[in-house]
Amino acid sequence: MKTGKGKKVFWSVLTHIELLIMSCIVIVPICWIVMSSFNASSGLASSSLIPQTLTLDNYRNLFTQTNYSEWFMNTLQIAIVNSIFSVSIIMLSSWIFSRFNFRGKKFGLMSILLLSMFPSFLSMTAIYILFMTFGLLNKPIALVLIYSIGAIPYNTWLVKGYLDGVPKTLDEAAYIDGCTRFQTFFKITLPLSMPIITYVAVTQFMTPWMDYILPNLLLSQDEHRTLAVGLNALISGKENTNFTMFAAGAVLIAVPISILFMVFQKYLVQGIAAGANKE
Description:
Blueprint: H1 2-36, H2 57-64, H3 68-99, H4 105-115, H5 124-133, H6 140-150, H7 152-164, H8 168-176, H9 181-192, H10 194-210, H11 213-218, H12 227-232, H13 243-263, H14 265-275
Helix pairs in contact: 2-13, 3-6, 3-7, 3-10, 4-7, 7-14, 8-9, 10-14
């Protein structure tokens, strides 16, 4: 009995040590970035975890010396439109695959699964030429199209798994009451799918804030840049060493995203857990 109890204590201590180490690995860089944003110097080498002098100059300079406000609004607009488009397309396609039987359904699902394995930046050259041909370069709608279409493969499988768990008898009862298929979709399916809808909407909302490759390729003009591209310009090149200003911009990005996650945390967990169940 004592040996078994000793093993439990040993593994418990080992687990807590591992969690403590992992927490430090995650928290220390975050604290460094936050404190660097209040550092009076501009170089990364002179920054420290606890600056000797705290100042808000980096935040002021971010708005007075750069187009941070325009970058922020560009990213916010792209994120909102992308969330709406993505959720609409993904919910419709997932509902069709979940509720209807038709020729080529299995082939379509397997094709979507195969496409989800290839990231969109692998086709950057083709995307650039295509968008240049249609005159979509330096237009935010270009990113919305790529993000919305690129989100279909993985999320369709995820949402389909969630919808498979919604009893079809509810749809049949609605049909008996005189509802059409689309009325059933809007009145029955969507209200019962709020967790997975929230998950898709939040993840798609986050995409423009984090992506650098595609915005840098398609939005070259400064007034059309997203935050990732604009902030990278502060530290790219030999003469651009505004690392503390970059840290201030990173902190401002993290605040709304963190609040968004805390507000919708319950729905995010429910959505990803339920969507992982396949019948």
